[in-house]
């Protein structure tokens, strides 16, 4: 299938499944589309078992694996989704919560990677370094999934900022940690050399620091141009060019494109909206990026539902995947509880912050994309199966219950 045919198919299916969800399931849009897509995939597999001569599963698997999910997300959709998410996080709110956000997005990701990687190595017998790669790809929360749930949860502003800010930044940090560990774990990787640890540290600094610097510089330049213009269609086009062009430039320069997109989006969404846009332009920019966000969310969650065809099903892998769900939650609890414990003597936190942020730390398409991008090895199938099961559990079970949990916990005393 050509690129245009694949794109058309995905958009048509996203629309059809979205309508089914709206009329029948009535779940939150993105989650509902993924549920319908997953149900359709499992139904096709079941039909193939009943009527194997039709070869339905093989044909569908050929189409699904023909779509490079990893490239489509990491080098295409992710920049737009992160930019759109960052546009709606105000720097003033983020500034008030910067310390817990930074600690959870750095120390938290690191601790979760160690906890999950160590436990996964013990569970599977996998070499520790490769297990740490799994820990790195499953530790970051997915801003796409998290921000979608936040719209339904009606959380206190300070808690919402913590969750949104952390999800935006730990995604970029986690991606860099993943690249570093892949380089160390697999011969021939970017950080694999005689001075692997030193090179890994330098790679992390270059990726993270370079991405942040590029995002701020490009965002500032676009903001300065927007101040000279009063044409909403052109200004919307400039923001689209910033998201697309900046992301691809970061990829070309081998620095963190996700962090670039977040920093540029934060600057345009706050400083640019206040000082570089008219009221009319601001309304059009907000509406345009909300629409882009909703469409790409629908397509992304549709693709996650169909990626079940890329997963290796066996009793052993399914048992490992089920156990990995608990491991991932323990890693997430560690990533939240330790920074909160460090900061608790110096600042107040919302009631039940650890419970809400642990259960609300959803995994998503980014983890699946990273698992699919791993070099081929004997451990790839079990990593992909475990990743997919964690993501499906996270989006469906946690995504549908975090809002009721937040409402209930916020009425209780602050017990961790």
Which terms summarize this structure?
single chain, 416 residues, mainly alpha, 17 helices, globular
Order of helices and strands: HHHHHHHHHHHHHHHHH
Structural shape: globular
Tally of alpha and pi helices: 17
Query: Which structural category do the helix and sheet elements fall into?
Result: mainly alpha
Main sheet: strands, sense, barrel: none
What's the pLDDT, averaged over the residues? 87
Radius of gyration: 21 Å
**Proportion of residues in helical segments:** over 70%
Which stretches are low in confidence, meaning pLDDT under 50 for 5 or more residues running?
189-194
Total strands: the figure is: 0
User: In percent, how much strand structure appears in the residues?
Assistant: under 5%
**Distance between the amino and carboxyl termini:** 51 Å
How are the SSEs placed, and which strands pair?
Elements: H1 3-25, H2 29-50, H3 56-66, H4 69-87, H5 91-96, H6 98-124, H7 128-138, H8 143-153, H9 157-185, H10 196-227, H11 232-253, H12 257-275, H13 279-306, H14 315-343, H15 353-359, H16 365-372, H17 380-409
Helix pairs in contact: 1-2, 1-13, 2-13, 4-11, 4-12, 4-13, 4-16, 6-7, 6-9, 6-14, 7-9, 8-9, 8-17, 9-10, 9-12, 10-11, 10-12, 11-12, 11-13, 14-15, 14-17, 16-17
């Amino acid at each position: 299938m050509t690129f245009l045919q694949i794109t058309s198919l995905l958009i048509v299916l996203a629309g059809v499944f979205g309508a089914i969800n709206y009329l029948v399931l009535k779940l939150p849009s993105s989650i509902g589309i993924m549920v319908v897509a997953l149900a359709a995939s499992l139904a096709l597999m079941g039909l193939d078992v009943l009527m194997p001569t039709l070869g339905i599963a093989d044909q569908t698997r050929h189409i699904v694996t023909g779509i490079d999910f990893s490239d489509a997300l990491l080098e295409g959709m992710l920049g737009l989704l992160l930019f759109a998410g960052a546009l709606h996080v105000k720097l003033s709110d983020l500034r008030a919560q910067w310390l817990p956000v930074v600690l959870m997005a750095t120390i938290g990701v690191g601790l979760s990677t160690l906890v999950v990687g160590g436990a996964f190595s013990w569970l599977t017998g996998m070499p520790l370094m490769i297990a740490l790669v799994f820990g790195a790809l499953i530790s970051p929360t997915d801003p796409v999934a998290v921000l979608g749930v936040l719209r339904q949860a009606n959380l206190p502003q300070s808690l919402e900022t913590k969750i949104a800010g952390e999800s935006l930044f730990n995604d970029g940090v986690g991606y860099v940690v993943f690249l570093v560990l892949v380089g160390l774990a697999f011969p021939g990787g970017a950080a694999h050399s005689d001075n692997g640890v030193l090179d890994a540290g330098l790679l992390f600094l270059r990726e993270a620091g370079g991405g942040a610097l590029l995002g701020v510089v490009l965002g500032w330049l676009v903001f300065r141009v927007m101040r000279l213009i009063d044409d909403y269609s052109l200004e919307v086009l400039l923001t689209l060019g910033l998201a697309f062009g900046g992301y691809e430039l970061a990829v070309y320069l081998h620095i963190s494109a996700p962090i670039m997109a977040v920093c540029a989006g934060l600057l345009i969404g706050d400083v640019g909206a206040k000082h570089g846009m008219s009221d009319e332009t601001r309304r059009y920019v907000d509406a345009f990026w909300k629409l882009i966000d909703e469409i790409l969310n629908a397509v992304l969650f549709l693709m996650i539902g169909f990626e079940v065809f890329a997963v290796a099903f066996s009793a052993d892998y399914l048992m490992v995947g089920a156990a990995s769900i608990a491991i991932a939650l323990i890693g997430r609890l560690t990533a939240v509880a330790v920074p909160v414990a460090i900061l608790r003597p110096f600042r107040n936190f919302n009631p039940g912050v650890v419970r809400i942020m642990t259960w609300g730390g959803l995994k998503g398409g980014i983890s699946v994309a990273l698992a699919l991008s791993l070099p081929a090895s004997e451990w790839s199938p079990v990593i992909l199966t475990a990743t997919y099961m964690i993501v499906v559990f996270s989006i469906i079970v946690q995504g549908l219950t975090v809002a009721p949990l937040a409402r209930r916990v916020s009425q209780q005393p602050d017990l961790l």
